Amino acid sequence: MAQEFIVTGLDDKGRGIAGGQFVKFAFPGDLIDLEPVSRRKKTSRLVRLIEPSPDRQEPPCQYFGRCGGCAWQGLKYQAQLKFKEARVRSLFGDALPIIPSPEEYYYRNRMDYAFGPDYSIGLKDGKFNIINIEQCLLMSEASNKILSRLRHFVSWKKLLHYKEGIMRHVVIREGKNINNMVLNVLTSDKGELPLEDLWEKLRDAVSGITWSINLSPADRSYGEIQKSFGQDHLIESLCGIMFKVPVQSFFQTNTHQAEKLLEVVRDFAGLQGGETLLDLFSGSGSIGLSLADRAKEVIGVEENEAAAKLSEDNARLNNINNFRSIAGRVEDILQSLEGRFETIILDPPRPGVHKKALQKIGQIKPHRIVYVSCNPETQAHDIKLLEESGYQVKRIQPLDMFPHTPHIENIILLKL
């Protein structure tokens, strides 16, 4: 039976809180009818919007409420920023005003789509069904046109979706500062993709197409690369530094906001030119390479061996000679590193930094730590451990990397 409640807040997943229940697509100030879905998980479904919050807007996307992404598109952008900033302040106290994304829409440089029944290509509805996406408002119009042409190609070639056929995913990656676009088409191993035919159909609009096979039952857009035509990588620049981005490697998804992030990190690091910088969880080197001109030496540490090698390739691409990368787990590499590190950059994945690594950083005692996080909750936990080693939080800068989602990027400067 539906029950009437006012939405009083948001949880850390961006769901509305009403009557002790978590409700997707409900926003503070809404008067709603809800229907319980899971008593154990305290989740409910929005049945009827009785009276909308003043922060609500009509979502421009035709798929809103069905597609698994963009859960906040019904919330005005200024309200999104307000709630994100409030979440950071609730965890850390005072913080600088959140930096908005330069673009509210069309900001993504990558999207992973799944193949579905009847030659559909799109995004999941949060369960198993594929929504046939004709226009995603987070990607450029050029990429939407590529998606349409790919849909026509798989229909023409009668290429069925997995498991009826071989087609699993397609990843579209596009440069925002440098005009190029590459595709990675992922299939099962039960047939061959007519890659050359696809390249001939799309080569006027894309720089390269790669075919990969995903042998895993897991629903992921990653596999063993089989063949490529044209570029097998994206070329992009951040703050004037060129990056080669292989089709399956990680790169910041919001290019222009990533440049603002690098500017904040550069400011917080306060390098004078004589320091040795330790860049932990360095990935393809975007942070470390952007700071190399201000440091005596930059050492990156990255668990993924391919990413560590890629960061050194990117250093050579930009004629940066004072950067090197070490492949290995951060908590292990820190135990063997010797020397003085005046500044340490932390940019870990969502689970945060291993306790052993934090303890070792406390022993190294760099003068400054700049902690970049995509998960303020785990960041708050890690900051408490660093404070036990004598560090004090000096500045906090949240950024909105992902408009219309509850995700937040947060940068903290700590000093001894």
Structure overview:
- There is one protein chain.
- This protein has 416 residues and is an alpha/beta fold.
- It folds into 3 domains: 3-56, Beta Barrel (OB fold (Dihydrolipoamide Acetyltransferase, E2P)), CATH 2.40.50.140; 110-238, OB fold (Dihydrolipoamide Acetyltransferase, E2P) (Beta Barrel), CATH 2.40.50.1070; 254-415, Rossmann fold (3-Layer(aba) Sandwich), CATH 3.40.50.150.
- The protein has helices at 77-92, 141-156, 195-202, 255-269, 286-291, 305-317, 330-336, 355-364, 376-388; strands at 3-6, 9-10, 16-18, 21-23, 31-38, 43-51, 110-115, 121-124, 130-132, 167-174, 181-187, 208-213, 224-230, 233-238, 241-246, 276-280, 297-302, 323-327, 343-346, 368-373, 392-399, 409-415.
- The strands form 4 sheets. A 7-stranded mixed beta sheet has the order 9-8-7-10-11-12-13.
- Helix 7 (330-336) packs parallel to helix 8.
Provide tags for this entry.
22 strands, OB fold (Dihydrolipoamide Acetyltransferase, E2P), 416 residues, alpha/beta, Rossmann fold, 25% helix, 3 domains, globular, 30% strand
